Amino acid sequence: MYIDSAGINRIVYQSAGLVAGLTVTAYIWDEALTKSSLQTFTELESGGYYLDYNFATAQTYMGIFYEGGTAKLITSIRVGSVNTDIDFIKYMIGGRWKIVNHQLIHYKEDNTTEVARFNLFGRYGTPDDTDVHDVVRV
Predict the structure, then answer these.
(1) Are residues 71 and 113 in the same domain?
(2) Who's near 118: CB < 8 A, 6+ residues apart?
(3) Structural domain of residue 26, as residue ranges?
(4) Is the pTM of this model over 0.70?
(5) Is pLDDT at 9 greater than 90 in this prediction?
(6) Fewer Cβ atoms within 10 Å of its own Cβ: the N or the C terminal residue of the chain?
(7) What DSSP string describes 15-30?
(8) What is the pLDDT of residue 82?
């Protein structure tokens, strides 16, 4: 599951067999393995349930979902920012690209702020910046 940004976000859950009238709950852990209190979903209809949960920061969470106290689903929930990803792509292609000592360095549009650095390797796995066959982010 992917959620664009931190803050209060809605988790939607479909019960096994689309059974209505269940008590659907979940525990959610953050990357530091801090466990939430037991969260209770609200039923919509026809076996559909939702929970508005406050994801404090952008990171990957883990959730275990229960129906009537029985675990039914374990999933990861990635909370990130599409805008951050778009900015990174823009920075990667928008500024200067420079090869120095078998490394490719990408800069922002100002041509001085480094965005990413990659080691360059030739056909036989040795550092090479003239006949590049492999690029590995540092």
Answers:
(1) no
(2) 103, 104, 105, 106, 135, 136, 137, 138
(3) 2-79
(4) no
(5) yes
(6) C
(7) -GGG--S--EEEEEE-
(8) 66
